[in-house]
Amino acid sequence: MTSPQPHHPVVAEHMEQRAASLQLRIADAITAFAGSMWFVYVHIVLFAVWMLFAERNPWPTLTLVVSLEAIFLSTFVMIGQNRQAAFQQAKADHDFTEQELELKTNTELTRAIHVLTTELHRRLIEEAGPQATPSGATSR
To answer: With 0-12 CB in 10 A as exposed, 13-18 as middle and 19+ as buried, what is 76?
Structure first.
């Protein structure tokens, strides 16, 4: 069995905040149910029963109930969109900070490598000194 992947720090913080608030847990549960096929199936059954047994034509109470439900569901959709936007912004801010830190670190490493390479090159040139002529050869 594999262990679960660690979450992005923003995701972990977001999950902790959602779990800490009863209101947010209720909103998450409603949104999860309203976005499922079970929601559709339950409504098909409820509407069919209502139309067949509870009211006769033209179903004025059903129309009112459905309109009110649509208002509340659209509110949950907007709450979900706002929450997702805030989450994405927090994640983008975190990623930006991490990338800036990584860029700074890489720049410092590149500069250090350049300094070390330059120093190494200078030492190699100094140690080699002037090239001695091969024995038996005359210089002109």
So the answer is: middle
Average pLDDT over residues 26-38: 89
Whether residue 55 contacts residue 63, with contact meaning beta carbons closer than 8 Å, is answered with: no
User: Identity (one letter) of the amino acid at 26?
Assistant: I
Handedness of CA 30, 32, 34, 36 (dihedral sign): negative
The per-residue pLDDT for 106 is 97
C-alpha pair distances (Å), 20 with each of 17, 91, 115, 121:
5, 20, 51, 60
- CA-to-CA distance for 32 and 35, rounded, in angstroms? 5
Residue 21: what residue type?
Answer: S
The percent of residues above 70 in pLDDT, for the chain, comes to 89
Grade residue 130 by pLDDT with cuts at 50, 70 and 90: low
